[in-house]
Amino acid sequence: MPQPLREKLSACTAALERHGRVVVAFSGGVDSTLLLALAVRALGEDNVVAAVGVSPSMPRRERQAAVRIAGKLGARVAEIETGEFDDPRYLANPKDRCFYCKHDLLSRLKELAEREGGAALVTGANADDTGDFRPGLAAGRKLGVASPLLEAGVTKEEVRAASRALGLETWDKPAMACLSSRIPYGSEITPQRLTRIEEAEYVLHDLGFGVCRVRDHGPVARIEVPPERFDELLAVRRQIVDALKRLGFVYVSLDLHGFRSGSMNEPLGDAAPRAARGKTDAE
Length: 283
What we know:
Helices cover 43% and strands 12% of the residues. The chain has helices at 3-19, 30-43, 60-73, 88-91, 97-115, 135-142, 148-151, 156-165, 191-206, 230-235, 237-246, and strands spanning 22-25, 48-54, 76-81, 120-122, 213-217, 220-224, 251-254.
């Protein structure tokens, strides 16, 4: 591991040690897994809780994987029901939707941290996140949540490098954003739509397309996979079309631009920061 990265991880570890006890907002993704591993090493299993949100916007397989990974790392796991679906502002799906979702989740996790003897709530935000359109990051700042990786200047590339060096299984895990990010801004979010998206993406995952998105445009499913895999997808076109139509989609399309995070931000144009057109809290 390069010395500059070692120094950053040492700074992150020192920050965790200053907190003494922490609740890690844990999704099972590459960032929060590295943070949880560092926290357990620094503070011991008894002083670390992995808090996993339970929400229709988080795929079931992702939640199950998060619980498994946290247990493997030795952390205690707390599954916390979220309440964003009680907030009409979230359901209306504005471009700052992530703020309302993260504010709800982090508020509930702060309550958990208080019950855990005044533990600090920490998130896996990294240094690259400050350059993106991240309404959810603003929610964390408003609530006074700590982000040790970000504070130590650890970038996404360094998160993956450190995770690989530490033998963490998530080091090369693709980004897996919340399911609400598959619905165009201004189009209402419902649990039923999220379930349909989740099941549609499972169809692709089970066919070997680990990196994919199914964007829900009402009657139209817009599939994104990397361009180099178009031929493979078209080879099983009939199977995909039949499965997605059974889920209620009328039309099934392939986005010729290919997979890219944050494609739902493209219609925002100049209405959002430049980085927003490529990425948000929910990719």
